[in-house]
Amino acid sequence: MINKFTRIRRFDGEWTNDYLEMEMLAIQYFKEVYIHDNKPHRREIDQLLDSLEVPCITEQENLDLAAALTDAEIEQALFLMKPNKAPGPDGLPAMFFQKFWLVVKNDLIACIKSFFDRGFILKELNQTMITLIPKNQSPEQFKDFCPISLCNVIVKIILKVLVICMKAIMETIIAPNQNGFVKGRAISDSILLASELASELMTFIHNARKVKARCDSSNNAMCDNGFLFFQPQSGIRQGDPLSPYMFLLCSNILSCMLHKEEQDKKLQGIQFGRRGPRISHLMYADDTVLFFKADPQNCSSLKHILDKYARLAGQVLNKDKSIVISIPNTPRLFKRIMSSTLGAKTSNKLGKYLGVKVDNRVNSA
């Protein structure tokens, strides 16, 4: 099936099928998506990090990460790639480099080692094509499409090498509340915990965060008949191997912020049994479930955390995918206050979490 659309709804609500107009609407929309207007000062970020108990790597782990790159590591990264995945702007899939490895080996290794030595790569190699994948059966606007970046294989190898290095340390530096992309942790852990916690007498909010795509110092291209380039300024790039790990490092700060609020007695999560631990949140990549006591202090503390994190990280709440769910005896007025304060819709049940139904009970309105 070919992913193609013949018309799009403009920002004013009217439809257009003019190709040039659709092209410009796409560029306009994604430029806005990839721009963070209110960039925080580095000092403010440093102050936040200093106030949190953020896990750090050891001196030996730091030395291992900074060790010189070997030819074997580059070759391993290339041959771990699927050969037939969609190529980047140069049109060359991983299969080409794998098939002719003996021919391109020396030049490819020299190029990649040069990047790690100098921190510089030709902008032409770092250009990215964006392909749009529909989020639903009837997409109308560009917000209904998920932008996937198609990178050149040389850039993918660089990113893959970094991923291999990072995998070894992720388990020790990422909070146990996060179960995505960390070796030894499974999606089923989040599903089972969410199902158990959903039955507890507390309030929880399902907060699916919008991940904005990014290519640092790269050009993105919207293409059909030709290319239209633009320079992204924020977000992370969906489609390259490193993006999930970069996202986990950022979202780990949100987890640390929530833990600090718990330690300061400003946020109260759900307790697992009489002597069990309290849990305030579960994460699987960008899917987050927050559990908190339904009172003004907890609601205000959570709002403060989400606002501060959004301002410093640039990851904003996706109101279309966020819901607030409360136990039946929560006063209706406070339900409306929570919904208004957190900027999320109310619902009677969580329904599906990570593709699995975890709460089939319907609460009273």
TrEMBL record:
Keyword Nucleotidyltransferase part of the UniProt annotation: yes
Keywords from the UniProt entry: Nucleotidyltransferase, RNA-directed DNA polymerase, Transferase
Taxonomy, superkingdom: Eukaryota
Annotated GO MF terms: RNA-directed DNA polymerase activity
Pfam families: RVT_1
Name used for this protein in its record: Putative non-LTR retroelement reverse transcriptase
InterPro entries reported for this sequence: DNA/RNA_pol_sf, Retrotransposon-Effector_Assoc, RT_dom
